[in-house]
Amino acid sequence: MRNCSSRLIFAATLFLLASDASLVAQVGKPTPLRPITVVTEPKSTVWIDDVRYGETDEKGRLAIASLSPGVRSLRVRANGFAEVTKSLPATTRGDVSVTLAKTTDEAELAFQSAETASTIDRQKAIAEYGRAIKLRPKFPAAYLGMARMYSETGDVEKAFQAVRSAKRLSPGYAEASAVEAGF
Prior knowledge:
Largest sheet: 4 strands, antiparallel
Structural class: alpha+beta
Number of helices: 6
CATH class of the largest domain: Mainly Alpha
Distance between the termini: 78 Å
């Protein structure tokens, strides 16, 4: 009996040591990055956790090769469509389909007009961002777009005021912090 108990204790000890070593090995491993491809309307802008990742191609695809682990927030916007935000579970890999619906929301359409004008005519973009804000006073992305335009025209004070408004409406807005760091 004593010999059987000793063997049982010895086997249990080995099991615990092996389990513990396995856990230590798992903790020491870097967490793997995961690839996803956003599939939606062509020329859609894609953000993950409020950081702009780029624009979909003419087929509506944007490959992101190295998305960090964990639950993420995916946001997609295209001209003429309502913006969509959805959660990406930690296990998401491969194609992620996002269906966009046409919009008649005047604030959203003004914002989209401002985004288009931002690369062509900064003053028109500022006016369109202002119109979007007038139509929807709690529109952090419009304030942030306006901040970018003011910064690019050299009006740092107005840029700072606009970015503060965006951050007040959306605390922890990562893109707002990135824009603010630029001026």
